[in-house]
Amino acid sequence: MTTTNIKAQIAARGYTAGEIMVATAAREIADGELVFVGMRLPMLAFLVAKRTHAPNAVGLYENGLIRETPSPQLLYTMADPPNLRGATQCGQMIDVMALLQQGRVQLGFLGAAEVDRFGNLNSTWGERHGKTQRLPGSGGACDIASLAQRTVVLLAHERTRFRQHVGYITSPGNGQGSGWRTAQGLPIRSGPSALITTLGVLRFGSDGEAFLASVHPGAGVENVLANTGWKLYVADKLEQTPPPTADELAAMRALDPNHFWTK
Amino acid sequence: MSKASKLMTMREAVAQHIPSGAMVLLGAQMEQMIPFAAGHELIRQGRMDLTLVGPISDILFDQLIGAGCASKVMAAWVGNVSAGVAYCFRRAVEEGLPRRVSVTDYSNFTMALALHAGALGVPFLPTYSTFGSDLLKKNDNLREFISPVNEEKLVAVRALRPDVAVLHVQRADEYGNAHIWGSLGVAVDGARAARKVIIVAEEIVAPEVIASDPNRTLVPGFLVAAVVHEPGGAHPSPVQGYYARDHAFFAEYHEQSRKLEDFDEWLERWIRRMADRREYLKQLGAVRFDALGVREHAFSAPADFGY
């Protein structure tokens, strides 16, 4: 996306699509929680939460890093040197994964190429124009989706990504519905909590299926439904996603002034 | 008998210790300290049929795959961390170009457990991760079993013992005792799981320097087959306390690997035409490399080992 596009978005609404996703993701973090942070937008969401409502949240990173203070600088990867300076601990991958498997990690963030109606994620084998595409793969996503108490997924709301069925489950959501996760052997206290998209927020019902819980200002319910590859349930009390606050925008723009991540 | 120095050049280390067909662990420290200099030497020496093992590798696996050195990848993620997909990896998997590569998909945790099992000398370790996923269905090294102690269903992760692990570190002595700090990833288990370790160090220091801070010695020298002094050997990945990540280089590589012919040109320019890492850094330019240097040092407080 071009700089012009970013400027146009800000002129029209005061923020970009990436910025409302980051602000919404940041609000999923409660103060004091252990959070598996991941890359890209979630990395920024954690930093925004730390600088606003969740100063005591603790960030865990797959390279073994545990960090309680926000990084002083924009990160391109979790192992960028500014993220390690002043960290609580620079341990091994297995140390942070151990905390995750013990069930101590309340929240994990993920991205994905595709999602289905039960929140199963595919980031291994994609499909474009009828051709299979090899994607990078799980990284730690399968582990986070398996073991975190709550999982929040961020992705662009496009019909090609929101599919009736995903061809490959990289990271398990609710499988085929309620009860599936525990039958598979996954921990009782785990599973998908929200899908934060460029258009709105989807949450999960007791049947394990996703429903539209809120739409971003100006996104439009019809637009959301048209960009979803299955018949999406809409909440009886559909809400509008609160736009990013001045504090949230200030926090993310201090870290990402050129909108490298928040396009 | 005095101990023999293990110092050698990268050319010698790769020639002596990494044959074609070997299973090689690279990128154990995730996005930091990726042993690019070693990978480039593997390409120059024309290694074939390597099995590449690592949780993520940023663009190093992509380069080895694009150069035709690998026939198998065992990894959790193969891509370009700050830019997205890895084009050579895609071409090899989707079209068999320049040659077909088979992929065994892991998650980061199951890769860490496979190496931890290898390091412990046990055949497998159990986990709750990957249940319900296609990783579990498709990867034969992940198997469901019933726990003998509580009848619970678990996933057994088979141990991995790479033939060689190449680790880039901040400093080592000539015997291979190595200090690493910053991003550790699976380096500690990787060094113990592997049958041989090659240490690539920014600095070679006296054994007394290493012994002054033994908690930071994450690889003991007796596990190490070769020590290579290669400053700048991890570029474009960062080395904590030595140089930053060259983000632009990753973005440039992303563009220049999009098409096969552009990648071949990149390969000629940055790897095949370079005799060694010194030439590579010269081509990169002192100004560019210096700009990645530490701007503000942040030394840890000394730990008192006195008694």
Describe the structure in your own words:
The complex is a heterodimer of chains A (263) and B (307). Chain A is α/β, with parallel strands linked by helices and 263 residues long. Chain A has helices spanning 3-13, 17-26, 41-51, 81-84, 93-101, 141-147, 180-184, 221-226, 246-255, and strands spanning 34-36, 58-60, 65-67, 89-90, 107-111, 114-115, 121-122, 125-128, 131-134, 150-155, 192-197, 200-204, 210-215, 233-240. In chain A, α2 packs across α3 (41-51) and α3 crosses α9. Chain B is an alpha/beta fold. Chain B has two domains: 10-101 and 162-291, 3-Layer(aba) Sandwich (Glutaconate Coenzyme A-transferase); 108-158, no CATH class. Chain B has helices at 10-17, 36-44, 59-66, 87-95, 108-120, 134-138, 187-193, 207-211, 247-256, 260-272, 277-284, 286-291; strands at residues 23-25, 50-54, 70-75, 102-105, 124-127, 142-146, 153-158, 164-172, 178-179, 196-204, 217-219, 224-229. In chain B, strands 1, 2, 3, 4, 8, 9, 10, 11 and 12 form a nine-stranded mixed β-sheet that branches. Chain B has a three-stranded antiparallel β-sheet with strand order 5-7-6. In chain B, α2 runs parallel beside α3. The model of chain B has no long low-confidence stretch (mean pLDDT 97). Chains A and B meet through α5, β9, α6 and α7 of A and α4, α5, β7 and α7 of B.
Which features would summarize this protein structure in a list?
heterodimer; A: alpha/beta; Glutaconate Coenzyme A-transferase; ten-stranded mixed sheet; two-stranded antiparallel ribbon; 14 strands; B: 307 residues; alpha/beta; 2 domains; 12 strands; 33% helix; 20% strand
